[in-house]
Description:
Helix content: under 10%
Number of strands: 2
Strand order of the largest sheet: 1-2
Shape: elongated
Number of helices: 0
Oligomer: single chain
Radius of gyration: 24 Å
Distance between the termini: 63 Å
Structural class: mainly beta
Amino acid sequence: MEEAKENNTVAEKNNTKFFSIQQTVEIPADRRLIIDVPREIPAGRTILTFTPARTEPKKERVFGCAKGKFKMAADFDEPLEDFKDYM
């Protein structure tokens, strides 16, 4: 089992701490995982969420690919009528 990515975060809401551990792991053929849990996470009941890893690489972004698809109004930089009382 090889860890490719690990990201741990802690958040608090209504005096309850929420912990998030994100690890990329390989699921073995016997479908059993051993996960090292950081010490700051208390022992007890825990909810685990499994999300399949992306199998296809992200598409490379191309600078300027949306050129010509959006038109700005000629008066775009003019003051808005709604804000005339504040100017």
